[in-house]
Write a structure and sequence with these properties.
five-stranded antiparallel β-sheet; 5 strands; elongated
Length: 60
């Protein structure tokens, strides 16, 4: 099963996508991707994403 985990803050949003193994409850599963959008509304926002073999980071 794939699960999207969101962690919203006052000026950021962090996320991860995890694959949970039904045979091993409580392990947290395997992280497939993660990322963040930071400094929302502050003029110099930043986003990052990591998944598989790719890693991207940019300032906006």
């Amino acid at each position: 099963m794939l699960v999207l985990v969101l962690n919203p803050g006052s000026s950021s949003l962090k996320y991860s996508v995890r694959r949970l193994d039904s045979g091993k409850p409580g392990t947290g599963g395997q992280e497939l991707a993660r990322g963040a959008i930071e400094r929302i509304g502050e003029g110099r926002g930043r986003r990052s994403h990591r998944g598989g073999l790719s890693h991207k980071r940019s300032n906006t």
